[in-house]
Amino acid sequence: MNYFEPIPNDGFPDTTFGRVFHIFGKRWKEFLWISFLVYIIGWAFAVFTSLVLGGTILVDGYSVRMRLHYADSNPWHIVSFVVESIIYYGFACVANAAIAWLVACLYLERSPRIRDAFLRAVRRLGALLSTLLLATIVTLTPCLFLLWLQLHVVNSDIFFLIVQITTWLYMLYITIILYHLYPIIVVERENGHCINPWKILDRSFLLSQKRLLYILAVLFFWFLAKLFLTIPISLLRQMNTYNDGSQKTNTPIFYIASSLDTILGIFFMTMDSVFQGVLYLQNRITKEKLDNIALSEELGVDCAIDEEDNDYVVMSKEDASENDASSGALTRPM
Predict the structure, then answer these.
(1) Which segments of the chain have a pLDDT < 50?
(2) H/E element holding 137?
(3) What is the distance between the alpha carbons of residues 187 and 185, in angstroms, rounded to a whole number?
């Protein structure tokens, strides 16, 4: 398959989703392993935080923790949830970046190692955190201003409705124009270095122009697919409620639903990252005529022979140099 051909619009959504799941199917074990490993590490940190701050350890780690902690009004439990969420989000950023890099390598018909994907993501961790912090500030500042107006200047039901609708539309717009952040951070470079956070935001904005409806349509259909897949979990939780609507805990149905929620959560996190990587590359192919030569130069990778399976695997130039020094492995430019 030639990945560097633009996806025809008349094939949407079949062709777009087909491309995403074709890429996922090529290395699905590695994709899921990255998300699972990151989830386990994040959950281990969450358990430690719960033991220190007195939170409740749950089988699924995160999905119902917020409601339980806010329901008991224990400030330490709320702090525990916030700390766990930050830790989990930090690990999820590494997983998203690693998966985006794997997608780019698969577009080059290479066989990337998981170790190299994590190394690329960890080396970009500073750019990831600073860019996401800047994106959070850009996103929340207008929302907080509207909230301040509602609370201190105009206090009416009509204005409240306007604020809610405006905030929702603004968040949707921000989600679309910043959809390419992770792939940009791990793929593109400037003078051999990662692009600074402001340029990353600007780059994502420019890539999304004239592609807003396309990205929105893909996200909408993927949202419907996820909604459909979570129906069994919703039914199980509906069966596991008290008369007042609160959720029963420590019951077989609760643990089954929570475990299914964890499994689907890992799958969704993986696929969300694959979607980001594919849409980023497809938008560049459509708008910038990106080809395999330009992409390989941006990734800055060489091919090293894997002596175990005799296959060529993607390695960063830094890792290839280290590998040469330690084991004398052969390398060749792409």
Answers:
(1) 10, 57, 59-70, 303-315, 317-334
(2) helix 125-152
(3) 6
Q: What pLDDT score was predicted for residue 201?
A: 94
CA distance 192 to 300: 9
CA distance 271 to 96: 10
∠ CA 300-301-302, rounded to 5°: 135
pLDDT at residue 4, rounded to an integer: 82
**What does the pLDDT read at residue 152?**
75
Count how many residues are written for the chain. Answer: 334
Q: Find out whether 200 and 184 touch, Cβ atoms under 8 Å.
A: yes
- Helix and strand tally (H, E) in the chain? 14, 5
Tell me what pLDDT residue 144 has. 85
Give the strand pairing for 301-306 and 189-190: unpaired
Parallel, antiparallel, or unpaired for β 193-194 and 311-316? unpaired
- The shares of helix, strand and coil residues in the chain, as percent rounded to the nearest 5, are 75, 5, 20
C-alpha 185/C-alpha 94 separation (Å) is 11
Integer CA distances (angstroms), 258 to 20, 36, 48, 254, 308, in order: 27, 16, 20, 6, 39
Residue with tokens 């339980």: 68
40-68 pLDDT per residue, tens? 887 777 677 666 655 554 544 444 444 44
Checking 113-121 for CB contacts under 8 A at 24+ apart, the result is 113/313, 113/314, 113/315, 114/30, 114/33, 114/34, 116/313, 116/314, 116/315, 116/316, 116/319, 117/30, 117/34, 118/34, 118/94, 119/316, 119/319, 120/186, 120/316, 121/94, 121/95, 121/97, 121/186
Tens digits of per-residue pLDDT, 294-327?
A: 888 888 765 433 334 444 444 454 444 444 444 3
Q: How many CA atoms lie within 13 A of 27 on its CB side?
A: 25
